[in-house]
Amino acid sequence: MEANKQDGGSPGETSQMLMQMMSQMAEQLQALRAEREADREETRSQICALQSAIGTPAPTPQPASSAIERECQHNTSPQSIPTKKKPTIPDPKLFDGNRRNFRAWQLAMESKLRVDGPAIGGPADRFAYIYSRLDQTPQGMAAAYFEKGGADGCHDPSQFMEYLASCYGDPNIKQRALSRLETMRQGDRETFAAFLPKFERELADSGGANWEDSVRINALKRVINQELRAHLVGQLNLPTTYPGYVNALQNLGANLDEHHFQTRRQRADQQLRRKVSPARRSQQPRFEEQTQSPEQMDWEPTKIGRAGARPSNVSSRQTHDGRKCFRCNEVGHIAAYCTQGPRERPAGKSESAGKQERPQHKTKVARVEFKRSGQQAQDDEQSSQYETASDDESGKE
Fold first, then answer.
1. GO: which molecular function terms (predicted)?
2. Which structural domain, as residue segments, surrounds residue 30?
3. Whole-number mean pLDDT of the chain?
4. What pLDDT sits at residue 106?
């Protein structure tokens, strides 16, 4: 009994011991996690301190913008700088050295550094990132500048972008854009949807993005074609803002494009009908003559004069055969399969020649002739008598 009591109490004791052990292990794990988090914070602070130390410039005269940026970096603690682990904007394409493509590449690079700068790293990392997005020819041109670390050796990315802009940028882009903006016009057959991107590009290059809405609206109204401008006369409540005005022109241009498409389609259908109608008119009288002519006889050939049907036992090979029947003189069968009776012999022709040439057939001929009519039998007897007489005379001779 005591053993059973001890056995019954042992599971409760073991469960308590297990709970104590699990609680101790959980406390140890929490302590380890806290230590690791502390170590990570220390390493992060050290990395940020090293980055800020690398980015600190030498005591040389610098632009006000870069100096203000560095002061902000020194004043802000490493923990207050927002950390970004993954970039959100794709990498800009490699710049190939073409001046026409530099403006688009410059805007893409500036937005990349502004948004994903913390994920890229410090100023030195951004400086190297700009150099990595250059093609072979631009890299060769900027190799000395990159090796030196910039004009003052501080690896400032903003100075690197200014250096590239001085090499590949167009300083007179605004003047040329303004001149093109004054002279450009929408074509008579050009749609507004195709013309608007050209206008927006010249407006952006000329610095018109910062203009007032009324100035931009007047500039756009001056370059559209006469048809679109004439349809604007009937519009009473036009928007006063530039985006709303552009939207109204887009809707009007879409309606005009649809109207032009329907008009062209109707013209094409009319031209097609004009081409088809003369041909139909030329064919119509002939058709009427064929149908309304009183002398026209509704005649169809019949099969009355044709020979009777061939027997069923005639094969297809015999029907298409080229041999000729000597009874009916028709091609396609032979005398054995001919449906007509035996060919009648002429009345004045005798059978003496045939008998002389083939005397062995005399008995057969007599049997066949015996079956003929009475008149024919008399004729045959007379002919036979004549033949016997001629035979006797020939024998005497």
1. nucleic acid binding; zinc ion binding
2. 23-56+76-81
3. 74
4. 92
Q: Where are the alpha helices (DSSP H) in the chain?
A: 2-55, 64-75, 102-120, 123-132, 136-141, 143-148, 157-168, 173-183, 192-205, 213-223, 226-232, 242-292, 316-319, 352-357, 362-370, 374-396
Is 367 within a domain?
no
- CA quadruple 94, 100, 102, 103: dihedral sign: negative
pLDDT at 389: 44
Among 35-44, 84-93, 131-140, 361-370, name the most confident range. Answer: 131-140
pLDDT top residue among 337 and 224: 224
pTM greater than 0.90 (yes/no): no
Q: Which amino acid is it at 379?
A: D
Number of domains in the chain: 3
Confidence of residue 4 (pLDDT cuts 50, 70, 90): very low
Residue 199 pLDDT grade (very low, low, confident, very high; cuts 50, 70, 90): very high
Q: Residue 51 and residue 195: Cα distance in Å, rounded?
A: 49
Token output for 94: 């490699």
Per the model's pLDDT, the better-predicted residue between 394 and 327 turns out to be: 327
101 and 142 part of one domain: yes
Is residue 282 a part of any domain in this protein? no
In a domain, 235, yes or no: yes
Distance CA 87, CA 117 (A): 8
Q: Are residues 93 and 148 in the same domain?
A: yes
Mention every residue, 6+ apart, whose C-beta is less than 8 A from residue 338.
325, 327, 328
Tokens at 228, concatenated: 């679109």
Domain termination residue (choose one: 144, 168, 192): 168
Of 273, 292, 323, the residue that ends a domain is 273
Same domain, 255 and 196: yes
